Amino acid sequence: MARHPSQHSNTSFLWMLACALALGTGVSSGCATASSPGDTVNAGNLNKRPRRPSGILELHLLTMPVALNLDGAPGPDGVAVKLFANVGNAAKPAPIRSGEIELLLFDGLLSDNNVPMLKPAHTWTFTAKELKGFETQAMVGTGYQLTLRWGGFKPKNDRLTIIARHPIGDGRFLYSTPGVIACSP
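The chain above was modelled as a monomer; its predicted structure follows.
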């Protein structure tokens, strides 16, 4: 049976489109993390993940929707978060066994673009050894449940932003997606 010329060109186009979609671009969707503005991807290594001494490739931060009152005095003074990290070739979030994680708290809403330039209202730093005490198992994998007090900081806005970051060398950082928390100033 002979094909009409337009059928053949449509079939070729659909085949090329399917191949392009199957190959992908090496960019993951969903809760991917953003790195600092200077962190680039080598076009020859689209499907390879960068090597990092700690093995952390992505950070995922889940937040409680509101700030917490942890000391009983009027007003909020802390936040609760769950932290997950994609490490090495593990399919699920895995334990962090080296390096450190910083949690940065900002007064107000932020955009992804201005995070590296702003000074946080409060910073918490945890080594891998310190995180082990907060380790928890979930259906999605290993994570860390943290309740964090911010001390003398007094919020001026009705929302706070918290971000996890991991130093990857040369002054660069791997960032989680920002979490927004409602707060009564």
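Residues 25 and 44 are 11 Å apart (CA to CA).
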